[in-house]
Structure formats: C-alpha cells, structure tokens
Design brief:
Elements (H helix, E strand, L loop, with lengths): L3 E6 L6 H14 L7 E6 L5 H8 L5 E5 L16 H6 L4 E4 L2 H6 L4 H13 L3 E6 L3 H5 L3 H13 L4 H4 L3 E4 L13 H19 L1 H5 L3 E4 L7 H5 L6 E4 L6 H9 L3
Parallel strand pairs: 1-2, 1-8, 2-3, 3-4, 4-5, 5-6, 6-7, 7-8
Helix pairs in contact: 1-12, 5-7, 7-9
The structure holds 2-phosphoglycolic acid (PGA).
2-phosphoglycolic acid binds next to strand 8.
Length: about 250
C-alpha cells in the first residue's frame, strides 16, 4: 500500500514556545503511527532543528521544511539551501506551495530545479499543484494541473518520481473554509494518477502518494481521505490546533 500521510503546514505561524507546546500536544496524543502511514510537520525554519530533536526516533514521524532555494549555495541573502536542510537531517520539503508561486513568483521550471536539488540530497519533495478559481470556473483544471506536473516533474525517471509526494491543493479551497467536495478531490486525484501512469507507467503511478490540501479539518478529513486516490492531506489552519490535527491523523486510511 502506498504511504498515507498527514502533513501539517504551519506556514508563518507560532513562536518557538507556542510551536513547542503544539508539537508536544500532538506527539503526546497521537500514539503509534502504522507502518503504511506517516505524519509530517512542515514548520518554520528557525525551529526545524529543535523540532527534529523533539520528535527523535518516533516512528514514521518527520519534520519538513516549507521551502528551499533553487540554487545550491551563494549570494542569496535570506535563503536556505537543501545542503543546509540535509545537514540538520531534514527529510521532507514542501515545494511549490501556491502561496510561494503567487507571492514569490515561483515558476514551474524553478520548481523543477528545487525538486532535483531535494532529491539529490535524499529529501522528499512534497510537490504542490492546483488551480485558481477562474481556471476551475472555466472547467480547464485538469489541463492546468497536468501542465504543472509536466513542467516540474516529467524530466524525472521512474525511480525518482516515486520519491516525490504530490499535494493537490485547489487554490480556491486554501484557507477559505471552502473544501473541495470529496468527489471533486477524487476526480482530480484520479486525473493526476492517470497523467503519471501515462508518463511513468501504471505501477509507478500506483506507488505515488497524492495528498489533498485545502480546508481539511477534523470533521471532513475522514470522508476526503476515504476516496481511493486520496492518500492523506496537507493541512494548514487545522494543523495549528492539536485536537484538530490529531483527528486528521486518525482519519488516515
Ligand atoms: P488550509 O491550507 O488547510 O488552511 O486550507 C492548506 C495549505 O495551504 O497547505
């Protein structure tokens, strides 16, 4: 069975002590994570090292960075490289979140570079894709997402693509309280898997975890995650409340 993943995206929230308290509450309440499941916390850079220590050897539980730079090193003031992440034992990194695409002008080709750099350091990229509202209203969301995948991931070979986690996050559902219906999520996830199957083969596509993101909450996670092509979620707002995220973890298949 491919991995079922509950990934928290704290974004630019929580001070160190607030974050520690939140993480402690979740780690204390979540019990054993099953072999086919993973729990991932994408937290702000300043707390990565400390949070990794807090998680320690807890099984199938990992810390992720929320971003990395698309160059290896150099004169890029304020940026963080994959080498730096690897040096503090970070195993996951969100790549191409829609907020970064929008506010920091990240292009599909720049994201291809980030994916390559992550993979070169054995960091799993959680590659985000998803359409804005006008694209959904025009009914061309499948083509839009397909192009994002093609331009950022299709240069990979079959081995490499299986190291990538994909997160489908319709932009109109992020932070808006407007969740995609479970049918809408399943339709897109099925489409993504079929696009991957055409490029990389059915078996490879079947091994790739595809997460849904966009207003996932404790109350709707179970229904969304129960869809056959939905392998968990990337969760913003609800990951900042311990009880909510615990319920989301419990909703994994
Ligand atoms: P949300 O954010 O759960 O607050 O909608 C999801 C995300 O942006 O990853």
């Amino acid at each position: 069975m491919r991995k079922q993943i509950a990934a928290a995206n704290w974004k630019m929230n929580k001070t160190l002590s607030e974050g520690e308290q939140l993480l402690k509450g979740i780690l204390g309440g979540m019990g054993e994570v099953q072999e086919h499941q993973q729990v991932v916390f994408a937290i702000p850079y300043p707390y990565l090292l400390k949070s990794n220590e807090s998680i320690g050897a807890k099984k199938n539980t990992f810390v992720a960075a929320q971003n990395c730079h698309h160059k290896t090193s150099g004169a890029y003031t304020g940026e963080v490289s994959v080498d730096m992440l690897q040096s503090i034992c970070i195993k996951y990194c969100i790549v191409g979140h829609s907020e970064r695409r929008e506010y920091f002008s990240e292009s599909n080709s720049m994201l291809a570079d980030k994916v390559n750099l992550c993979l070169s350091k054995s960091i799993v990229p959680i590659f985000c894709c998803g359409e804005p509202l006008n694209v959904r209203e025009a009914g061309i969301q499948n083509e839009f997402v397909q192009q994002q995948l093609q331009e950022s991931l299709f240069h990979l070979d079959a081995d490499a693509i299986q190291q990538v986690v994909i997160a489908y996050e319709p932009i109109w559902a992020i932070g808006t309280g407007k969740t995609a219906s479970s049918d809408q999520a399943q339709d897109m996830h099925k489409h993504i898997r079929s696009v991957l199957a055409k490029q990389f083969g059915q078996d490879v596509a079947g091994n790739i975890s595809i997460l849904y993101g966009g207003s996932v909450k404790g109350s709707n996670a179970k229904e969304i995650f129960s869809q056959p092509d939905v392998d968990g979620g990337l969760v913003g707002g609800a990951s900042l409340v311990a009880d909510e995220f615990l319920q989301i973890i419990k909703s994994l298949k």
